[in-house]
Amino acid sequence: MPNQPQFEQITLNHKKIDLISDLLKKVFESADPFSLVNHSILLSNGNVCIGKTYQYSTKRARLISIGKAGLPMAAAALQQLGARVESGVCVSKVLPADLPNWPQVKFLTGSHPVPDARSVAAGAAVADCLAGLSTDELVLVLVSGGASALVSSPRSGLELADLQRVNQLLLKSGATINEMNAVRKHLENLKGGGLARLAAPARVEALILSDVIGDDLSTIASGPTVADSTTFADVQQILARYDLTDQIPASVAGLLARGQKGEIPETVKLTDPCLQQVHNTIIGSNRLAIEAACAAIREKGGTAEILNSALVGEAREVSCQFIRESQRHCLGRSGLQMSIAGGETTVTVHGQGKGGRNLEAALAAVPLLADDPEGLFFTLATDGEDGPTDAAGAIVDAATAQKAQVLGLDLQSYLANNDAYTFFERVGGLIKTGSTGTNVNDLMIYLRCA
To answer: What is the value of pTM for the model shown?
Structure first.
């Protein structure tokens, strides 16, 4: 569980602060990776039941735990399986100084959102752990958000710098996570079913904490244990759609061209034999976090409305649409009311400022809250890290616009420079949770206490 959230320079009364804190507590409890994995593994008379599949007398297992929730997910699995785990790899963005005493598990960190040398080392460690498996062995794969960058394995002919360049271009382009991961899957070995291919002929059980809209298994962490429906041709179209074709490295362009000609293998497809022994189970998701927040409001006697559980589009546009709809929904109603939405928006970066999609969404909302004294809006990255910042999101109310005016801050200038973090650093409103150890995408919440 994350630390108590910190709300920087916020003038809200204690009642509202406590309400938001309670909401966040319920959200994080619903997405607690240790509990979710712990409840998904059962032992009975020497047999192991994982997810929805019964495993008979499994005595030998290998553990792969990758993503921002890698450590707590691995901890839960090891608590349940114990000595059955012969070897394993745990990859996360951050690791504590006092690591658990699990000599059979190799602990590594990687980089996010752009891979680095640590990410490549992590990819090599995962591949090594999967070597030499037999049909009577089990591979337990624990997947959480961020694994696409934290674990990297460039295809032959590509270097780390090539992957970094492509990732940087995609992050600034406004491409969706589905589109980004379609590209990644065709440039790397472990993605797009690649991990399942390496693990064959062993049985593979994957427990997955979803951080993508609609819980698309092939997109979460770029689908390491899942068939991929996209092709090299699709990747070319994605790059062209965002005018990136002429900006990618020559080595990447060459690989994609060979792939389209059938000279190098496609990603794993649905009929591939390596998937016959693979089972994937989603154990946590954005939808569950939304429902937990709604339950928290109803426990307090309020009303809760889910406006959207599949938010997409430009962050600044989506947040304004969400707030207008929320305000219309609350007209003429009394008492505590909440509107909530979840998903993953995008930001097309044109400026040089500091921020992420949740902070940009909050910044765009400031004018809409200026004349709404009873309203309150906040955004949240459930991993606690919005883009390259130490903030999970920001809170906006009527006072935000007033403070900006007093300080002489031009909202549109900050938006144009994609500099939402600096704006909220000056006027107040940043939400800081620290790394939460989980990741089930983003939330937008509008509250009214009329």
So the answer is: 0.87
